[in-house]
Design brief:
Number of domains: 1
Helix content: 40-55%
Largest sheet: none
Shape: flat
Oligomer: single chain
Strand content: under 5%
């Protein structure tokens, strides 16, 4: 369950790169380029997919201990 909403994939990749001392920037490619290379299934991961923990917070009273994925990776 995600306790943080709106985490940017590029920010997560940069934090992982810094943590493991990898000198690389994320490569942003167009959806059409990735589909041409990998086929139609590649369109799925390219969708704007977001999740919220609000329902589980409301229903179960869950209180996340970690709420910032980038700072956890740094």
């Amino acid at each position: 369950m995600a306790a943080e909403e709106g985490a940017v994939v590029g920010d997560i990749v940069r934090a992982i790169s810094e943590r493991f001392n990898v000198q690389a920037e994320p490569l942003v490619r167009s959806v059409s380029e990735v589909i041409a290379e990998h086929g139609g299934w590649a369109a799925g991961p390219a969708l704007d997919q977001q999740m919220s923990s609000q329902k589980i917070v409301d229903m179960l009273g869950w209180k996340p201990l970690k709420t910032d994925v980038v700072s956890e990776l740094s």
